[in-house]
């Protein structure tokens, strides 16, 4: 007999004792948090400079407070990037390659925004590529009432887009995604790459600390038998992230996680499930 | 909209949806104290974001904060407020499931790996689609299906064991 899971779960998904709490329990700390955020944004605007945050430099953290603790992984904050109440119209003439993508760079480096979508916030060059043949941008894009965060990057011959539903602030979402993109970029910032040598030793470039590492066997869909494969927990300028490394044909592949985990055990367990199911980590 | 009006709208939303959001938090957390922390954090973040979150998106926004939290391992060292466990409080309409079944199912749900538990609650209690669940959790639809299948298998096995 088929189980009515909604009914079964309704009996066990409780709500805790005491029932609802007064709204002041949320309004008062909410006001305090809002004041802190406004103070931080105002401070940044008065400074009137784009604060380019590099590895090893103290950056604005998860609360967006400039100079209060390193949680970023190296991205540029445009002090004018506070959420604007109204969406700016976008008149780009190109379109993303599929309809689920809200914005991306095309092959020649033009930023393409989906028809009917509007950019409501931009962070210029969060990858801190600087002037050159690479481009990056962080965006909040809204379409049909749905808001998405986007990190788009471009270099000649390739582009990359990471898009997730907008939850929280763009400045809070970007650091981890930037860190992951840096790993993906590989040759973009040679000093920050990770290498897995033939003996299975992890060699981290400048700015990256290997917090924990473990040899893993995720099956032949991940690495050929006998090839070194390692899961690592990393710290990139105070931002924790995880990645899988495999050495195939003398070169190292780095597969960063886009999801945070409590520890390396949790990351490895999740990776094992994903590779068992054929999903992979990305 | 003036601050007073925005705040009034926020308070109205919290009053209307707090109970439902609390049940989601308790459903996806192993630990009741952690569930209250997660709900608190989510509703405070919602307050901060309220000027740019549309009312019709507020529940989804808050739910995503709840389900994207690291639930099992990250706990604050001390909470002064005593909150009891999942069972026995603020339930919706009483289901026909027996007390023993509920207890077994409660334990089995609590023992699921975090992502499986989140997927099962979102898909089969909140009623989200595979796509919506994937978006909430920031994972692929295939992963949602995989987690869901494994999670339900474990819950079903627990129920069958209890009934045999």
Total of DSSP H or I helical runs spanning 4+ residues of chain B? 7
Name the shape of chain A in a single word: globular
Question: Biggest protein-protein interface?
Answer: A-B, 53 and 79 residues
Q: What general form of chain B does the structure show?
A: elongated
Average predicted confidence as pLDDT of chain A: 69
The Rg value of chain B, from CA coordinates, equals 17 Å
**pLDDT below 50 for ≥5 consecutive residues: which ranges of chain A?**
40-92, 187-192
**Estimated share of beta-strand residues of chain B:** under 5%
What's the alpha carbon Rg of chain A, rounded to whole Å? Answer: 21 Å
What is the string of SSEs of chain A from the N terminus onward? HHEEEEEEEEHEEEEEEH
Average pLDDT rating of chain B: 77
| Major sheet attributes of chain B | none
> What can be said about the biggest beta sheet of chain A?
4 strands, antiparallel
Number of strands of chain B: 0
- Summarize the amount of helix of chain B as a percent range: over 70%
Strand content of chain A: 25-35%
Set out the fold topology.
The complex is a heterodimer of chains A (282) and B (164).
Chain A: H1 5-10, H2 24-47, E1 51-52, E2 76-77, E3 103-105, E4 111-113, E5 117-124, E6 134-143, E7 146-155, E8 158-165, H3 170-185, E9 194-196, E10 202-204, E11 208-215, E12 229-236, E13 239-248, E14 251-256, H4 264-276
Antiparallel strand pairs in A: 1-2, 3-4, 5-6, 6-7, 7-8, 9-10, 11-12, 12-13, 13-14
Chain B: H1 3-28, H2 32-49, H3 55-68, H4 99-111, H5 114-126, H6 130-137, H7 141-163
Helix pairs in contact in B: 1-2, 1-3, 2-3, 4-7, 5-6, 5-7, 6-7
Summarize the structure.
The complex is a heterodimer of chains A (282) and B (164). Chain A is of the alpha+beta class and 282 residues long. Chain A is built from 4 helices and 14 strands.
Describe this structure in words.
The complex is a heterodimer of chains A (282) and B (164). Chain A is of the alpha+beta class and 282 residues long. Chain A has helices spanning 5-10, 24-47, 170-185, 264-276, and strands at residues 51-52, 76-77, 103-105, 111-113, 117-124, 134-143, 146-155, 158-165, 194-196, 202-204, 208-215, 229-236, 239-248, 251-256. In chain A, a hairpin with a 2-residue loop joins strand 13 (239-248) and strand 14 (251-256). The two termini of chain A are 37 Å apart. Chain B is elongated and about 60 Å long. Mean pLDDT of chain B is 77; it is low at 72-95. Classes of the chains: A alpha+beta (282), B mainly alpha (164). Chains A and B meet through helix 1, helix 2 and helix 4 of A and helix 1, helix 2, helix 3, helix 4 and helix 5 of B.
């Amino acid at each position: 007999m088929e189980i009515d899971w909604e009914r079964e779960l309704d009996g066990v998904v409780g709500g805790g004792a005491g029932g609802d709490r007064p709204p002041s329990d949320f309004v008062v700390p909410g006001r305090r948090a809002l004041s802190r955020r406004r103070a931080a944004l105002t401070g940044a605007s008065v400074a009137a400079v784009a604060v380019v945050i590099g590895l090893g430099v103290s950056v604005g953290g998860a609360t967006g407070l400039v100079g209060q603790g390193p949680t970023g992984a190296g991205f540029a904050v445009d002090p004018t990037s506070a959420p604007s109440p109204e969406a700016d119209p976008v008149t780009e003439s190109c379109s993303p390659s599929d309809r689920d993508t809200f914005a991306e760079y095309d092959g020649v480096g033009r930023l393409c925004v989906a028809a009917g979508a509007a950019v409501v916030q931009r962070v210029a060059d969060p990858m801190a590529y600087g002037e050159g043949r690479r481009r990056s941008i962080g965006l909040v894009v809204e379409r049909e009432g749905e808001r998405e965060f986007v990190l788009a990057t471009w270099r000649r011959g390739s582009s990359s887009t990471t898009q997730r539903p907008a939850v929280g602030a763009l400045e809070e979402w970007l650091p981890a995604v930037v860190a992951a993109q840096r790993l993906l970029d590989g040759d973009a910032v040679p000093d920050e790459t990770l290498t897995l040598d033939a003996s299975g030793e992890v060699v981290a470039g400048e700015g990256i600390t290997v917090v924990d590492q473990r040899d893993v066997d995720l099956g032949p869909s991940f690495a050929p038998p006998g090839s070194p494969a390692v899961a690592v927990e990393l710290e990139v300028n105070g931002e924790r992230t995880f990645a899988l490394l495999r050495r195939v044909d003398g070169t190292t592949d780095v597969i960063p996680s886009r999801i945070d985990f409590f520890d390396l055990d949790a990351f490895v367990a999740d990776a094992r499930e994903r590779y068992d199911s054929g999903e992979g980590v990305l | 909209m003036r601050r007073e009006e925005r705040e009034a709208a926020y308070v109205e939303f919290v009053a209307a949806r707090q109970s439902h959001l609390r049940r989601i938090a308790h459903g996806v957390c192993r630990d009741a104290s952690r569930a209250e922390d997660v709900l608190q954090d989510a509703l405070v973040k919602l307050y901060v974001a309220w000027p740019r979150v549309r009312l019709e998106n507020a529940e989804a926004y808050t739910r995503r904060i709840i389900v994207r939290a690291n639930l099992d391992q990250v706990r604050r060292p001390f909470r002064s407020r005593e909150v009891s466990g999942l069972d026995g409080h603020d339930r919706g309409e009483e289901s026909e499931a027996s007390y023993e079944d509920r207890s077994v199912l409660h334990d089995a749900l609590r023992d699921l790996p975090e992502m499986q538990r989140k997927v099962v609650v979102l898909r089969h209690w909140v009623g989200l689609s595979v796509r919506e669940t994937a978006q909430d959790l920031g994972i692929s639809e295939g992963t949602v299906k995989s987690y869901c299948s494994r999670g339900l298998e474990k819950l079903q096995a627990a129920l069958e064991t209890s009934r045999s």
